Amino acid sequence: MKSTSTSDIVLKVENLDITYRSTLFHGRSLRDTFTEALSSPLKFLMRRPKHLELLKNISFELKKGDRLALVGVNGCGKTSLCRAIAGMHGTQNKIKINGEVRAIFNTNVVIQPELSGIENANILVNLLHSSHSKKERKDIVDESLEFSGLGEFKYSAFKYYSKGMKARLFLSIVSAKPCDLLILDEVFDGADEFFNEKIANRIKNTIANSSAVIFISHSSNLIKEVCNRAIILSENKIAFDGSTEEGIALYKKMNQSES
Fold first, then answer.
1. 77 to each of 55, 62, 179, how far by Cα in Å?
2. Binning pLDDT at 50, 70 and 90, where does residue 3 land?
């Protein structure tokens, strides 16, 4: 039986809303816009921007030992929720995290194509493992490059890497150390078949040694293997929160009924 003490709570999300300002293309010419502004200036100036309500009143907790699968169709808000948890969106104190969070999304934001693999590895390690000492970060870089199997290609410019090589470097660094809250969003995308199997065992070990995990994947088999809980996002809210087996079965049933 899991302890329910406050000290076991790694993440608490309470009444979280995620809304995006929607920019719609109306197909108006500059002349039409100018005419509208002249004919009804007050109405034109008082127009309110449209908003897209992605998630509404989301509340849940993660405790130590929780390996949560976040499930839902594309566009339902899985990644947006994870980005909010990682501090990438304003959340008005609706999210509380006890410890270090490491969220793994698209690394292209920080990657420098002109720099070598080893130089980019240093950038990524300093970003993703910033709580470790300088020596520990150097050790992570060295170990990750060795594990990636890039060999002499680590000295080549990143822009010349294949998709598989990029995935090798990134996933090796991502999975180097566990943390308090680990968020993994489609982490196996782009990895070649051989390395995918190799890195899977390493990531599973990182998951096992992290206090709590949020895992997004389209592979139901992988979800069942690494997760002990599932949340289904549907129609702006949490439609299910329970065991992985029940969650996957319900999600498949929901999709069948909609098709």
1. 7, 18, 24
2. very low
Both ends of the chain: CA-CA distance in Å?
39
Amino acid letter, residue 203 = I
Residue with tokens 């109306």: 26
Can you name the CATH fold of 6-99+211-258?
Answer: Rossmann fold (3.40.50)
C-alpha to C-alpha distance for 140 and 149, rounded to whole angstroms: 15
pLDDT, residue 164, reads 84
At residue 112, the pLDDT reads 92
What are the residue ranges of helices labelled H in 1-116? Answer: 30-39, 41-45, 78-85
Q: State the pairing for strand pair 95-97/9-22.
A: antiparallel
Angstrom distance (rounded) from CA 142 to CA 152:
13
Averaged over 102-106, what is the pLDDT? 78
Indicate the average pLDDT of the chain. Answer: 85
Q: 59: closest CA among 90, 104, 96?
A: 96
pLDDT, tens only, 136-158: 999 999 999 999 999 999 999 99
Cα-based angle 82, 83, 85 (whole degrees, multiple of 5) = 65
Structural domain boundaries of the chain?
6-99+211-258
Residues in the chain, total: 259
Indicate the DSSP class of residue 36: H
Does 122 have pLDDT greater than 80? yes
